[in-house]
Write a structure and sequence with these properties.
- The two termini are about 25 Å apart.
- The protein has an eight-stranded mixed β-sheet, with helices on both faces. Strands 7-8 form a two-stranded antiparallel ribbon.
- The chain has helices at about 10-20, 35-45, 50-60, 70-75, 110-115, 150-165, 180-195; strands at about 1-5, 25-30, 45-50, 60-65, 85-90, 120-125, 135-140, 140, 145-150, 170.
- With about 210 residues, the protein is an alpha/beta fold.
- Helices cover about 35% and strands about 20% of the residues.
- Strand 5, helix 5 and strand 6 form a beta-alpha-beta unit.
- The protein has a domain at about 60-195: NAD(P)-binding Rossmann-like Domain (Rossmann fold).
- It binds NADP nicotinamide-adenine-dinucleotide phosphate.
Length: about 210
């Protein structure tokens, strides 16, 4: 698959490296295109870099790996997003890492859908730490990747990408359910940083029967 990753920080660079190694073609978009090109060169294969607009044109799937505070402006600069699959991976934690910086209703992902007119928005990759990407087995248990969104085809593409990161992908339903799964990221941050558990933690959904 061709994948656009907006943001060259910890999450964007880690996702890009893993997916490039799995054979996907990556384009990074950055506020500084030279930074995106440098990151792509460091990956060395299957990767390129450019502006937000160039990167957004590159593929159908666009991962937002940027701080929540920058998202609205980035969407404006990205150009025409009609028909694109936008994956909102932002965590809406307050800068103090305690509590939410938005009210849960509507969720961050629903705001993204309002700003990115005509795009199919999915909430995903926000409930895990970058340290656990591609390292998703904790003993005999596998970490879960919770996703939600309204477009089934978009979710099935994201499911494939989540499996490439070695997660069990859990479809949590429509985009409005981002109101339920966004706060999980705040719990993760609270446990990791404020309750001293560290970042080597992840959520998993336990089920007696594999219904789906
Ligand atoms: N780190 C994790 O474990 C993790 C896990 C799940 C979700 N997330 C979420 O993923 C997003 C990115 O996290 P991260 O850890 O990758 O952060 P980071 O290392 O600080 O990188 C964020 C990147 O976003 C870009 N950016 C664009 N607009 C920005 C702005 N106004 N201010 C600052 N940076 C801006 C920058 O890349 P350019 O300079 O190239 O534009 C920057 O490198 C956040 O919303 C975070 O909550 C992170």
């Amino acid at each position: 698959m061709k994948i656009t990753i907006i943001g060259t920080g910890r999450l964007g660079s880690t996702l890009g490296k893993i997916w490039a190694e799995k054979g996907h073609m990556i384009m990074f978009g950055s506020q500084d295109p030279q930074k995106a090109i440098k990151l792509a060169n460091s990956i060395g294969f299957n990767a390129t870099g450019g502006t937000y607009e160039q990167a957004s044109k590159f593929s159908e799937i666009i991962i937002l790996a940027v701080p929540w505070s920058g998202v609205k402006e980035i969407i404006k600069k990205a150009g025409d997003l009609e028909g694109k699959i936008i994956v909102d991976s932002t965590t809406t934690a307050a800068p103090s890492l305690g509590g939410l910086s938005t009210e849960p209703t509507p969720s961050a992902a629903e705001n993204v859908a309002k700003w990115a007119v005509g795009a199919k928005v999915i909430k995903a990759v926000h409930t895990i730490g970058v340290e656990s990407l591609n390292k998703t087995h904790f003993g005999t248990q596998e970490a879960s990747l919770f996703i939600c969104g309204d477009d089934l085809d978009a979710k099935s593409k994201l499911k494939q990408l989540g499996q490439d990161l070695s997660f069990e992908v859990i479809d949590a339903g429509p985009l409005t359910n981002a109101r339920l799964i966004e706060p999980l990221a705040i719990l993760w941050i609270e446990l990791a940083y404020n309750q001293g558990m560290g970042t080597d933690i992840a959520f998993t959904l336990l089920r007696r029967r594999m219904a789906k």
